[in-house]
Amino acid sequence: MRDKVKILITNQKGGVGKSTISANLTGFLAIEKNHKVSLIDFDKQGTSSVLISKNPHSNIQAYKAGLSYQQNSNYTMLEARAALRRYGAHAEITIADLTWTFGLPYDFMLDFDIVIVPSSNSKVEIASTEIFILEYVQRQMLKIKQNGQIILVAPSRVDRNQISEIKFRGLDFLDNCFICPPIYRISQINNEILNDFWFRIDNGIISENMYEFGNFVHEYILEGKKKKSEAPMTLQSKPPLSSVPLIRSQAQDSQIGFLKQGESMVASQEQKEFSFIPPFLRKK
Ligand SMILES: Nc1ncnc2c1ncn2[C@@H]1O[C@H](COP(=O)(O)OP(=O)(O)O)[C@@H](O)[C@H]1O
Ligand SMILES: [Mg+2]
Fold it and tell me: Does domain 5-281 have CATH number 3.40.50.300?
């Protein structure tokens, strides 16, 4: 199938919500949006694949694909790419959950249509997330532009009274980078929350929040898909993708659950060059 969408959920930091978001986005896209979704859990802890294994569904396949990081970085990338090819083979959407390390070349990040970077709302973490994204963009800007890759920052574990404080100013000038609706901090994580997909649990605030986040990402998935199959120009006349403020100037594979084994960015005039948002996402 030509129209495959690959999503990487990554950050250099642990504990920012990568696995929680990976698993919940997988559930939302597979069950609510009826896509065939493959989750590849590249992290050794296997957090995201555990949640999936507790909620089997015919549209979901989840795989653990721990990377060895033992040889050189290119070897690690080959491992990761092999897992991506193999486990994403039959999926419409592949979601990879990965803690980024410099044991991986940035080329691997370029393999994805959408990169989602979860980040808390603390000043330190916002700065570290901005640096992470800017270093990648600085080194790979031409290829990112060619590929039409989208970067989505996912504010995670955000207190609801702090939503207005979410600002990733250092990314403002990146036309391919957008801020997702924040995922709220849940003060009491009980078994229900740990064991089921958040979009369908019996808590209006949490489920609605996950709907908002999932729908936001889904719009990018659909637009990207349409673009790949050369969508009609009418797409461009659609309104902006979300009411949420968007950033733009303004393998040790193993069996899990029900599944078988197997398978200093410088601000200057040059920044105008960064207008690499694909036409289908541009404001009129
Ligand atoms: N929205 C949230 N509210 C409260 N706790 C959260 C939220 N998202 C994740 N957590 C908790 O934070 C911890 C780290 O989350 P996790 O998704 O495993 O991060 P990562 O994969 O980046 O290491 C886990 O214990 C998880 O249950
Ligand atoms: Mg994790």
Answer: yes
